[in-house]
Amino acid sequence: MSKDFDAVFRDLRAILERQAATFSVSDDGPKRYCLDAPIGPATVKSWGGKVKRKTIPVAWAEIGKAYVSFHLMGLEAASSAMSPALKARLQGKTCFNFSKPEAALFEELEAVTVQSIAALRKAGYCA
Questions:
Q1: Distance CA 68, CA 84 (A)
Q2: Selection from 1, 118, 8 nearest residue 70 by Cα
Q3: pLDDT, tens only, 9-46
Q4: What's the pTM value of the predicted model, to 2 decimals?
Q5: What is the torsion angle, in degrees rounded to the nearest 10, for the CA atoms of residue 66, residue 3, residue 8 and residue 127?
């Protein structure tokens, strides 16, 4: 694990903490921080009309072996506004990987986080 991972996690966690007021914190440890939201009607519909659980994860940061990941559900609705530099950090559809602090990218990621959460709510996936 890189020495920078703790600093990266601290910065990514701070992004999530600024959004935490309307969510529940389901994991709050030294290597993982996760925000959950009550499910919305679109989530129930996607589950075939059955409630599988009361909340869904919305965003989380986690220290891994090779990088610190930042997972953001609802990202597809906000991805068109991302810079090429931030898109280069995207792994798959909802996960960004970082190995060192990058203030400019983290500032942009915070704006994308706000947009993604708003898109999830607007689409009815979370309350």
A1: 19
A2: 8
A3: 999 999 999 999 999 999 999 999 999 999 999 999 99
A4: 0.92
A5: 60
